[in-house]
Amino acid sequence: MSDNRRDFIKKSIALAAVSAAGLGTASAEISDAEFRDRMETLLAQPGKKSTMRIVMQPNARANVNTMTWYKQMGLEDVTVWTDPPNDNAEFYKGTRLHFAEQGINVYGLGNGAVHNQDKIVLNLPGRDAKVEEYKKHLRNLGAAGITYTTYAHMGNGIWDSPSETTRGGASARAFDQFGVNSGRWNKNKYYPPLSHGREYSEEELWDNWTYFIRQVAPVAEENNVRIGVHPDDPPIPKLAGVPRIFSHFERYKKAMEIANSPNVGLCLCVGSWMEGGNTTGKSPVEMIDYFGAQKKIFKVHFRNIERPIPHFVETFVDSGYTNMYTIMKALKRVNFDGVVFPDHVPGMAGGNAWPFSVGYVKALRDRVEAEALV
User: Fold this and answer.
1) Mean confidence (pLDDT) of the chain
2) Band of residue 20 on the pLDDT scale cut at 50, 70, 90
């Protein structure tokens, strides 16, 4: 082992230790030249077997056992999330190197501090500072060579009701539109009837989307980063006085036209879209056919639900009201080359539900790829 290699490994270990201690990464800087050299070496591996990759979403400093587990399931990519104070270029570069040392690629990295932000969505005090923070996030991704990030434009978060059970008594997320429900994101909670003290108009929401995306899209293009916009969850036109503009096909289409950027597209959560049932204007397959043909789908959250609103319960990927083979077949039909994440798995008794979901999704992917060769 060369001295340079030893020094690099020592630095990577130090970087992980600093992060685990919650002290940030400024004290473990990696020069741009060293970063590029190391990534070139680590990426000089045999090509991937499939252009449609399956990912897990671990901690940004996942340990070796976790990464070994992923590799044993046949996974080669991950998406990760972080928050301040780790929202800096050194942490992003260190994260990519941390996984690359184990042969895993960081496909995308999200920053919870600039995701689902009511200041941006509702033009609250501090909006411009949040927009600048988002631009910084994109520049940090560019510095690390990470080319994707997920963004959600919900003014009052993801909404739930008390958990329920699905197949075999497994615990699962639920939402009852006419029952007890509330919104959440990070440490923020939102409640009906008005989460922000007044009714907001759809026109306001469109103005705020335009203001945001037209500032950040050029920065994404400059830094070779693609932004995948997640659907509203649930996709109900208005919740607690706040319109949710990513709840219908025509609104998604309008949002993409406003952005007018090859770097702004979809993180298509097919589970969220199923929640809306017939209210979304297009089925998940039709969304894939339309936006996938334009190469506007960058990531897919692959999950199933028992039934749509007004009262849905999430379930196992093989157990909902949608045949997930049709979803995977549609992705293959448009030559989707992003990543698939088996999101929101139910809680199983006596074990971890992730291997079941990963295995099922892999089997579907391999089936449609084999069929394409016939």
Assistant:
1) 90
2) very low
pLDDT in tens, 299-342: 999 999 999 999 999 999 999 999 999 999 999 999 999 999 99
Instruction: State pTM to two decimals.
Output: 0.89
| Structural domain total, the chain | 1
Nearest-CA neighbor of 367 among 330, 328, 334? 328
- Other C-beta atoms closer than 10 Å to the C-beta of 164 total 17
pLDDT at 29 over 60: yes
Q: Which of 63, 57, 56 is nearest to 20 (CA)?
A: 63
Residue 284's SS3 state is helix
Sign, CA torsion 301/327/346/54:
negative
Domain that residue 164 falls in: 3-373
Closest to 336 (Cα-Cα) out of 362, 297, 308: 297
What is the distance of C-alpha 206 from the center of its chain? Answer: 22
pLDDT for 81 beyond 90 = yes
Say how far residue 360 (Cα) sits from the centre of its chain: 20
* 352: amino acid identity, one letter: N
Q: Where are the beta strands (DSSP E) in the chain?
A: 53-56, 77-82, 105-111, 148-152, 158-165, 171-176, 182-185, 188-190, 226-230, 238-239, 242-243, 264-269, 297-301, 304-305, 311-315, 339-341
Cis peptide before 162 (omega within 30 of 0): no
pLDDT of 361 strictly over 70: yes
Q: How many CB atoms lie within 10 A of CB 42?
A: 17
> Pairing relation of β-strands 264-269 and 242-243?
unpaired
CATH number for 203: 3.20.20.150
Tokens 């989707």 found at: 336
- b/e burial code for range 201-230 (CB count within 10 A of at least 16 → b): eeebbbebbeebbeebbebbeebebbbbbb
Which residue, among 271, 79, 71, 273, has the nearest Cα to 166 in the 3D structure? Answer: 271
Would you give the end-to-end CA distance of the chain in angstroms?
46
Residue 41: partners with Cβ closer than 8 Å, 6 or more residues away = none
Task: Examine the pLDDT at 75 and tell me if it is beyond 60.
Answer: yes
Inter-residue contact 181 to 161 (CB < 8 Å):
yes
- Do 185 and 154 meet the contact criterion of CB atoms below 8 Å apart? yes
